[in-house]
Amino acid sequence: MKTISIIPVIRVLSWIVFLGLCIKAGAVLFTFTISLYNPPYAADLYQGLDLSILYSASRLDYIFLMAFAIILSSMQAFIFYFVVSIFEKLNLVRPFSEEIFLLISKISYFSLATGGIGLLAHQFADQLVKNGLVIGKAIDFWEGRDAFLFMGGVVLVIAQIFRRGIDLQVEHDLTV
Known about the structure:
- This is DUF2975 domain-containing protein.
- The protein is mainly alpha-helical.
- It contains five helices and no strands.
- It has one domain (7-175).
- Helix 1 (7-37) packs antiparallel against helix 3 and helix 4 runs antiparallel to helix 5 (145-175).
């Protein structure tokens, strides 16, 4: 009986998520850039995000808020780029390699950084709201900040376990 491997399915799903996040990051960057030269476009940014009131009140705050959105969207895309890279380099005969370890480590560091920047963005947005400025659905860009911090910690532990697997694999190769 032939077993069905889930790895090709996850590989395809990773590509789909990666491309979707790239499109999101590019769309946010594009609409932001257009809005800097045409202020009325600040009323209809990515997926109906309306920051025209913030743009009118403080262009600098608008730039900072959108910079957070662009950075966070881009970092999420980079995380999935590393996931896709793992599936491209994965060798199930010798799964423990330095290359895979480095990719897993990068995923953990980018996840921790995404969570940290998400916390900063949330604090910045809270301050804007306390000052009476309307930020609309911009809060959606850093909603998963806690999950990214947790994920980064878990993946960091997995990277350390993977490091130990590399050591054991090398030791096994030397004894054989």
